[in-house]
Amino acid sequence: MDQHVFSCIVLPLQMYAFHSQDRQMPTCPDGWSNAWMGHSYLMNTAYGAQGGGQQLASPGSCLPHFRSHLFIECNAKGLCGFFQEHKNFWLRVIGSSMDDDMFSMIMGEAIKVRNNDDRIGKCVVCLRTQQMTDFFLR
């Protein structure tokens, strides 16, 4: 089970996630370097009113790997499993032109691991490499 459960690290860096809802991977702005690319994660729900999410600017909203089940739950006896009640929500790709019905209502869709690449929004996490004072000195 250890290979499936990870811990988090808090980094005191200026990192931000940039998302795209088309099939193109976004790029980092000038003065920023690419830390990693991934899929745009929005939130999860669990039993009742439980759930959580990430701010879209947070690096935690850009996950390097798409997984249909992000959370595993373990009881006091050490038994662990994935539960159907736990739902994950991802930003999805939408049309980028008027021809693609850009302003029409987007219908929800259950996305499985095998068909995610062209339906899940793409993102990049960027690390600020240029100090803000450099911008003001120009």
TrEMBL record:
Gene3D superfamilies: Collagen IV, non-collagenous
Name of the protein in its database record: Collagen IV NC1 domain-containing protein
Organism: Protopolystoma xenopodis
A Pfam family: C4
GO molecular function terms listed in the Swiss-Prot or TrEMBL record: extracellular matrix structural constituent
GO CC, any one term: basement membrane
InterPro entries noted in UniProt: Collagen_IV_NC, Collagen_IV_NC_sf, CTDL_fold
Subcellular location: Secreted, Extracellular space, Extracellular matrix, Basement membrane
Entry superkingdom: Eukaryota
Primary location: secreted
Residues annotated as domain Collagen IV NC1: 1-130
Keywords recorded for this protein, A-Z: Basement membrane, Collagen, Disulfide bond, Extracellular matrix, Repeat, Secreted
